[in-house]
Sequence to fold (717 residues):
Amino acid sequence: MRGVVERRTENELAEALDQCIELLHSGATVKDCIQRFPSLRDQLEPLLAVAAELRRMAQMQPSPEFRRAAKARLLAAAVQRRAEPAQRPAAWWRSWSLRFAAAAAAVIVLAVPALSASADSLPGSPLFPIKRAMEEARLRLAPDAAAQAQVHLDIARARLRELETLRQRGQSSEEAARGLALALGRLEEHLRARSDTQSLPPGLVEQIEELSERLGVQQDSDSGRPDQPRGQTVRALAAQARELRELAKAKQQGPASAPGDHTNRGRGRGAGEHQGPVVAATATPQSTATAPAAVAGSVGHGPAGRRTEDEDGTPGRGQARGRPEDEPANQPGRQEEPRGQDGRRIDPPRGREDDRGPARAVPGRTEGQQERSGAQAGAGAHPAPPGQTGEDQRTPGLSGSGPPAGGGPGPDQDMPRQLRGQNEHTAERHGPPGQRGGPGASQPDRAEPAGGRDEPAQQGGAGRETMPSERGREDARRGPRAGEGRADDARGGLPASRSPTPGPAR
Amino acid sequence: MLKVKRPVGNEYADVPAEVVAQSAPPAPSYNDEQALVAQAQAGSAAAFGELYERYVDRVYSYVAFKLGDRTEAEDVTEQVFLKALESIGSFRWQGVPFSAWLFRIAHNQVVDHLRRRTRRPQVPLDVRMRDEAPAGDPEEHVDRLSEREELLAAMGKLTELQRRVIELRFAAELPNAEVARILGRTEGAVKALQHAAIAALQRHLRPKKRQ
Fold:
């Protein structure tokens, strides 16, 4: 009992004490407080004495000077803070998790419609970069080589669809063609880099065949106007697709069977393979014939290029699929002339297109290479070799034109290749060089400004599209050889070429 | 029983600051304080200045009581308000009155300051308090100094929690409910702690006074 009573008293006392302290704070005296709790007077009195002492001791006033000065400083700081509010986001925004959630939500809200809408966009439309970015993203997310190849195929198909649509509308399909050449070039490079059949997507050959067929349709629709640049472009693309098909076939049968490889190997793996394959695909026998032209073109022999043209004129379609090289050669031929002189750099814009033709000629080169292969002039490989070895073979054709280029052939050619290779690589990588054909792309970066420094520039034109791919490939191959060179180029070119892809990606 | 209690800030905790700001009566109250805080959060220097006016004495008192040094107390007091200005954007009326939030900052600043001070040579307490203007009788001033020393010595014998109750209750003059929030205790527990602390101080001080 006693304990309970004590506890109750304790609680009462604590409560009374607390109330008295509040009274003291509000100005009451100890006396006032005690009067309110007469029954607890004895216990409260000593406690309140201490409490009053505590109050007196604890409550210190800051000096007025400090009070004023500190306030002025604080207000100045407060005003300064107000000037920054824009930089100081609201409290909720300072939470990283919320920031992330908000950013993610914004991305989703903004991106979903744009992504879906971008699927149908055409080059030049605002959503097109998004489309390209999506493609690049798919490429990067592809789990294996086969999936990557499939993405390359899908991209090529998308470009082709764009090209078809644009041509149907009578609009400029140059960028789509360039993109297609680039996509095909990338696919080719991709295929060349793998030797195992398992890394090939199912139905690879059939899919390429389909692309090739569709390009053939486009080509046929231009049959009445062989001179039309666009026609050349499509022809070049068709040739490129055919080459690719051959390459795919070879790859499917097994690495060893790839003709290009042999040739290439001679030269030096990277380049050799690339070129080799190309050649193999397109050039082989026929290619030889055309090849020269192409080579010449590539080499930069104006004459050869022209010759090629002649060939193209005729064989172009006829050979069409049968001999893609020829077609390219033809185109190249025209432009080649310019190049030949410049050694690719000087070519005029359209001439470039022709140049591309030459690129295809590459196949021819292949042959040349093959022939040379033994020689594998290493450096000369394609271009240079053409001049050197290749020239010999093709020389005939080239020689005519070749000479000019040939003169410098050895070195010049080599140079060109590397350059091209780089350019192309760049272009390819950046893919979108967008500005100009794949090759063009690479070139564009440099060439455009420079005026098509190397072939690239030349290719820039219509030829670019075709050539680009071809050259691109070659370059790519070589590029690899060049290796560093490429990278540099790529960077250099990147601005231009990347712009397309990167932009969107971002 | 007469209850003289200041309104507790959290009475209005559920009222959005904006609403309070719009309907805040001019009379100084916690309601009004919410409006001030809202304005200060929105960047009003004047509102923050008003909050400073309301709390600077008590913050200074609290800090000085804990530090026992006027100059240091001024420095730390200013730091407390700068800190409050910096982070007022993150203050929320979620059951925590502004004063509780502010004195939590003050406590942390004092602790930080004491931590730093331990690395510096200690100044004797009597020297530190000597700058207190000896108003009136010098003897009385000496008496007060010795009383203060006694009191501080007695405070040293309290438990940490008891000491904090005394500091918040007497130096910061916070109402029991806010002390309870700051310390994370019930109001009843704070009353009991307060009672026990004062009783302990009485025991430690009274023997000397009797002498």
